[in-house]
Design a protein that fits this description.
single chain, mainly alpha, flat, TatC, 81% helix
């Protein structure tokens, strides 16, 4: 293919991705009230009701939420378009792993967002609201609350890709379980720093809520890499045994 043809394919891929996000965002806007009800459940469940401070805040919040939900729903289309763009340059074995990467990426990203909300965010919000006590009444604006929620959940989706990335690197022989295990202390420190960097608020509690799952993913990656190494070792042993039998058969004939 010529450079012009590659650029044309890239243009087509970008247009399809943008259209997919726009279409899913429009659909998400239709259900924006239901989405808001779900995301507001940690606050409304505690007896609080968010407020709006400007005329356009409610509308812009729904737009922001719809784009986030639209991107999440369009992610399979985006990943598939990326796959279609790079597939011609890959060999047969590489295509198999890339398909695994595409499917796994979406499932892990969606799973990370779901875990971040159901397993960390809901409990974290309820815990933080208790600090107000009976003397204070939290006045939560809907715009800041939804922005905080999105910025809190997005890193979970990205970080949940770590086990898949570790698996791919282990298959390529670029990382080992021994290396990851030896550097646990550095990984823990890096996890704390990363959690502090991506946490949307400066408080230590939110940082700790994010640190635990992140480090858990590192340990899961160590486990996955070791399993991958064992599988590769068994495969290599079988291939060597078959090669030895073939050599013995040839020498006996």
């Amino acid at each position: 293919m010529t450079i012009v043809e590659h650029l044309e394919d890239l243009r087509r891929m970008l247009i399809i991705c943008i259209v997919a996000v726009v279409v899913f965002s429009i659909v998400a806007y239709v259900f924006s009230d239901e989405l808001l009800e779900v995301l507001l459940s940690p606050v409304t469940g505690a007896g609080y009701k968010p407020v709006v401070t400007t005329i356009t805040e409610a509308f812009m919040t729904k737009i922001k939420l719809s784009i986030f939900a639209g991107f999440l729903c369009a992610l399979p289309v985006i990943l598939w378009q990326v796959w279609s763009f790079v597939a011609p340059a890959l060999e047969k074995a590489e295509r198999r792993y890339f398909v695994l990467f595409v499917l796994g990426s979406f499932l892990l990203f969606a799973g990370g967002v779901a875990f971040g909300f159901l397993g960390v965010y809901k409990y974290g919000v309820a815990f933080l609201l208790k600090f107000a006590g009976p003397e204070l009444v939290p006045m939560l604006t809907i715009g800041k609350y939804i922005s905080f929620t999105i910025y809190f959940l997005l890193p979970f989706g990205v970080i949940f890709e770590l086990p898949l990335v570790s698996f791919i690197l282990a298959r390529l022989g670029l990382v080992s379980g021994t290396f990851l295990a030896k550097n646990r202390k550095y990984a823990f420190i890096s996890t704390v720093v990363l959690a502090a960097a991506i946490t949307p608020t400066p408080d230590a509690i939110t940082c700790l809520l994010m640190t635990g799952p992140l480090y858990g993913l590192y340990e899961a990656s160590v486990f996955i890499v070791r399993l991958t190494e064992r599988a590769l070792a068994r495969k290599k042993a079988r291939e060597e045994a078959e090669a030895a039998r073939e050599a013995l058969t040839i020498s006996n004939t």
